[in-house]
């Protein structure tokens, strides 16, 4: 059982920190930052080419963190991979003892820094969760073939509390939970009243899952302006 799963399922306030792999192959800076986080967070959430910008893979940094005795969360987006590639990467993650994941659809490549890259979007976040849940239940791969060994993952998803109309986000959240998401992390929250309205809507819809509020410290005015735009 992962540290995050143990915390959330035992009523402990779960804390994670997000970390981006480098635009290169030298993980020194990330590993130094991870040592600062050791013992302070339950897991380190490693982004998967966020904003569709090319970086080293989430799997690569997650493996380095796991080998260093830290608890990583592998992010897996549908933008760049077919269902075969997603399952292959998740099986590789399991080989390193990585047992917690976050399923994301992913930003389109047109907003990133490799705009000529062709997006895949074979599966969205719900599809990824469904595929992994079915694999865990049946021991079969995405083509219905028996696996030699079947991993189990503590699966999560993302949600946007400020989405309008809110009912669409609540419906999407229900789909993710029904597909196997045991925890959910929100996009960055800057308005507590919006979060309260969202949480009330979740309760009213009787959706049962652990919800973690996303906190984004603004390092400079330029970052605040970028986020606002």
In one word, what is the shape? Answer: globular
Low-confidence stretches: none
Average pLDDT for all residues = 96
Counting DSSP E segments of at least 2 residues, the number of strands comes to 7
- Strands of the widest sheet, in order across it, are 1-2-3-4-5-6-7
Q: What can be said about the biggest beta sheet?
A: 7 strands, parallel
Q: If helices are DSSP runs of H or I spanning 4 or more residues, what is the number of helices? A: 8
N-to-C SSE series?
Answer: HEHEHEHEHEHEHEH
Rounded to an integer in angstroms, the radius of gyration calculated over CA atoms is 17 Å
How big a fraction of the residues is strand?
Answer: 15-25%
- Helical content stands at 25-40%
Question: Could you give the distance between the termini?
Answer: 39 Å
Which secondary-structure class do the elements indicate?
alpha/beta
Structure description:
- The protein is α/β, with parallel strands linked by helices and 229 residues long.
- The chain contains eight helices and seven strands; from the N terminus they run αβαβαβαβαβαβαβα.
- It has a seven-stranded parallel β-sheet.
- The protein is globular.
- It starts with a helix and ends with a helix.
What tags apply to this protein structure?
globular, single chain, 7-stranded parallel β-sheet, 38% helix, 229 residues, 8 helices, alpha/beta
């Amino acid at each position: 059982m992962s540290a995050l799963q143990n915390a959330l399922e035992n009523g402990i306030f779960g804390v994670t920190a997000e970390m981006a792999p480098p635009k290169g192959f030298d993980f020194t800076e990330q590993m130094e930052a991870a040592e600062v986080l050791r013992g302070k967070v339950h897991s380190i959430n490693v982004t998967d080419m966020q904003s569709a910008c090319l970086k080293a893979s989430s799997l690569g940094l997650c493996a380095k963190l796991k080998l260093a005795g830290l608890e990583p969360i592998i992010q897996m987006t549908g933008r760049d991979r077919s269902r075969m590639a997603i399952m292959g990467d998740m099986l590789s993650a399991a080989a390193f003892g990585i047992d917690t994941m976050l399923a994301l659809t992913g930003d389109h490549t047109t907003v990133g820094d490799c705009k000529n890259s062709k997006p895949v979007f074979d599966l969205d976040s719900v599809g990824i969760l469904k595929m992994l849940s079915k694999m865990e239940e049946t021991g079969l791969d995405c083509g219905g073939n028996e696996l030699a060994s079947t991993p189990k993952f503590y699966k999560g998803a993302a949600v946007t509390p400020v989405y309008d109309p809110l009912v669409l986000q609540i419906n999407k959240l229900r789909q993710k939970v029904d597909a196997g998401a045991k925890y959910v992390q929100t996009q960055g929250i800057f308005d507590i009243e919006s979060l309260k309205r969202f949480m009330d809507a979740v309760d009213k819809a009787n959706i049962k899952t652990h919800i973690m509020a996303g906190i984004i410290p603004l390092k400079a005015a330029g970052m605040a302006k970028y986020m606002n735009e």
